[in-house]
Each structure stands twice: as C-alpha cells, then as structure tokens.
C-alpha cells in the first residue's frame, strides 16, 4: 500500500510539472510567428499527441486509485488478534475453539491426528505423578504396585511414541487407582502436571478402545507446547480475522516483537487455577505472579499504547475445584476472605453477566 501511495504521489507531481510547462509554452506561443515549409507544425498533430498522453495518464491514475481503494477496503476488514499470556494459560485452546466455531470444526482425519498426542499426554501424566511420589515421600497403598511402576518405566522407554499397547493400558489402570498415586495427584501443584491428566486417566477404557476417535472435548484438552508463531485465519460475517498464537514460556517471548505492528487487539490469557503453581522454566516463580507481571508490562508497553486489550481469565472450572482445597493466601498472603467475599457479592450484583471494563481499552472476560 505504501508503494502505491508513493507511485500515486509521484505521478501527481509529474502531472503538476507538465501542467506548469504547458502553461509557459502557451504564453510563449500566444502570438506565434507564421512558420513556413518543413518547420511548420500542424495543430491537429500536436493536439492529438497531447490528447493521447492525457488519456494514458488518466488511465494509469484510475488504475492506481482502484488498486489503492481495494487494498484499503481489504485492510479495513482485516482484524489482527494477538494471543499473549504466560505458558499453559489456555491460548492454544482458544485457537482450537475458534476453529470449531468459525471453521466448521475438525474433520475426522484431523481428529485422528490428535490420537497420538492424547496418548502421549496420558503417558507423560502418569509418569509425572508416579515420579513425584519419591520426591513427596509418598508410598504406594498397595506394595504390589512397585512392579507396575517398573513395568511402566520399561514400557515408556521401549514403545513407539504416541502409541498405547494393551499391557501399558493395564499397567496405567492399576497405578491410577492406587491410593498413593491419588495422594500424589492431589499434590500436583508441587510439580508439573498437565491440566488434562485426570480427564484422560478417568476415561482410559473409552480412549484406549480400538475404534477410538477423539471427540472435540478430547481435542480441546490435548496439550502440545507452542513454539514459534502459529497463525489461524477465520471470518465472521464480512470481517477477516488473523489470530496469532505465540509460545508463553520465557524463551518464546522474544518472538512476540515480530507480531506487534498493526495489531488490532490483544487477547491476554490468564489461568485462574495457576495461583498455587510454579513455572516450568522457573520453579521459584509463582505462575499467577508471573502472569500479573507480564500483563502489567504489556499494558504499559509503548507498542500497545493505542491497542485494545481483552483479558481472558481461563480455567474457571479447575479454579472452582481447587479453591475448595487450596486457600488463595498461598499466592496472596494479604488476602482477606471475609472482606473479599463481601466485595465479590457486591460486584456480582452490579455486573451480573456483563463484561467489565477495567481500563478504557481493557475488556475483562471470564470463562
């Protein structure tokens, strides 16, 4: 578009120079001397030459104007969304939901592609839970599960990634129902574990059946670390959306700068359930604190001074379950439950089922 503008401006300047030159020549020839012989120029020839040039310039001008208008219309109908947030805050899940809602969902072939990812998630989850037991000082409720643990480690090293042979399924089932394994799972905030662990492990029979085809919920809960920048395009009515999902881990954030220019809106994702968890890349940093720090830096970044920001508070269902067992003071020591409950009740009455604008250009959305 900038090239077209430059061409259009250059052409206008050329036309202005030609007009000035033409005016000067007209004055000089206002009382022309009569020319004879070969030096005489026919007026009809001069006139037709100038007319053809004017027509060509007019044609070029119209073509440039049309192209400029088309590009402007296309740009005006394009909305560029940038998904930001700390690692495992639910950004990729939003991208999947946009595909389901606005791109006719996932085909059967696409769902089958997630099968290996889901099997890998299951294996990594049970391995994380069992390995954490020694660190947490937890023993198996059934001493016989020690053999299953050794078999699990052996199979994990030998099977093809993304597969789930029957002997592995049997081993995982025995371990998952053990009281010691469940005790380790209850303390998942003390180590790294996928949010979808219980969802998959509680449905092993369905998920490991020979005819298994992942459904939309299975796909949404699957976890693959986002590296680099992933673009998703979709349309809503007459608007074209370009959504960019970038990795949330600290090592991935340096790549965000390439997405800053021309952003229409930022969707910042924060996981409500992360208040008692630490980062994968830094086991001393609370995830909620990291998310708050990152959100503050984005809100005050020079690139986003005039950019609208939508705050998505994700994983509400996990938060509702966790808050029954883990007090919020683990993240916010000054938290006063009695006072907060009163303020929350008042806020709910004032803003029931309505989004909350917490700054002029920031929209809060809970999900």
TrEMBL record:
DNA repair in keyword set: no
List of residues binding Mg(2+): 92, 226
SUPFAM superfamilies: P-loop containing nucleoside triphosphate hydrolases (SSF52540), Transducin (alpha subunit), insertion domain (SSF47895)
Chain residue ranges for the region called Disordered: 9-71
Basic and acidic residues: compositionally biased ranges: 52-71
Keywords of this entry: GTP-binding, Lipoprotein, Magnesium, Metal-binding, Myristate, Nucleotide-binding, Palmitate, Transducer
Database matches in Pfam families: G-alpha (PF00503)
Keyword Metal-binding among record annotations: yes
Residue sites binding GTP per the record: 88-93, 195-196, 220-226, 245-249, 314-317
CDD domains: G-alpha
PROSITE patterns with a match to the protein in the record: G_ALPHA
Top-rank lineage group of the source organism: Eukaryota
Residue spans crossing the bilayer: none
GO molecular function: G protein-coupled receptor binding; G-protein beta/gamma-subunit complex binding; GTP binding; GTPase activity; metal ion binding
GO BP annotations listed: adenylate cyclase-modulating G protein-coupled receptor signaling pathway; detection of chemical stimulus involved in sensory perception of bitter taste
Protein name as catalogued: Guanine nucleotide-binding protein G(T) subunit alpha-2
Organism: Ophiophagus hannah
């Amino acid at each position: 578009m900038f090239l077209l503008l430059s061409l259009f401006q250059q052409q206008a300047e050329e036309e202005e120079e030609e007009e000035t030159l033409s005016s000067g020549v007209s004055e000089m020839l206002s009382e022309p001397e009569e020319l004879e012989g070969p030096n005489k120029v026919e007026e009809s020839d001069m006139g037709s030459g100038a007319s053809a040039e004017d027509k060509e310039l007019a044609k070029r001008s119209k073509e440039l104007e049309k192209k400029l208008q088309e590009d402007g219309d296309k740009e005006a109908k394009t909305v560029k969304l940038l998904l930001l947030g700390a690692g495992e805050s639910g950004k990729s899940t939003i991208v999947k939901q946009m595909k389901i809602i606005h791109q006719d969902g996932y085909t059967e072939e696409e769902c089958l592609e997630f099968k290996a990812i889901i099997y890998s998630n299951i294996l990594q989850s049970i391995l994380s839970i069992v390995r954490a037991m020694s660190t947490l000082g937890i023993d198996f409720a059934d001493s016989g599960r020690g053999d299953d643990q050794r078999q699990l480690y052996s199979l994990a090293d030998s099977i093809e990634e993304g597969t789930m042979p029957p002997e592995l399924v049997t081993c995982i089932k025995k371990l998952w129902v053990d009281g010691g394994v469940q005790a380790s799972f209850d303390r998942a905030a003390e180590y790294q574990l996928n949010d979808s662990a219980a969802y998959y492990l509680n449905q092993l029979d369905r998920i490991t059946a020979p005819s298994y085809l992942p459904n939309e919920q299975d796909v949404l809960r699957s976890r693959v670390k986002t590296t680099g920048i992933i673009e998703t395009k979709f349309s809503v009515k007459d608007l074209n959306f370009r959504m960019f999902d970038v990795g949330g881990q600290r090592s991935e954030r340096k790549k965000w700068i390439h997405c800053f220019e021309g952003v229409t809106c930022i969707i910042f994702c924060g996981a409500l359930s992360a208040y008692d968890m630490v980062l994968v890349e830094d086991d001393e940093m609370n995830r909620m604190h990291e998310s708050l720090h990152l959100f503050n830096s984005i809100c005050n970044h020079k690139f986003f001074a005039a950019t609208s920001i939508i705050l998505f508070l994700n994983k509400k269902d996990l938060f509702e379950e966790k808050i029954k067992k883990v007090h919020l003071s683990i993240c916010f020591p000054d938290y006063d439950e009695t006072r907060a409950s009163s303020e929350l009740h008042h806020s709910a009455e004032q803003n029931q089922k309505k989004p909350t604008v917490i700054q002029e250009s920031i929209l809060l959305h809970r999900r």
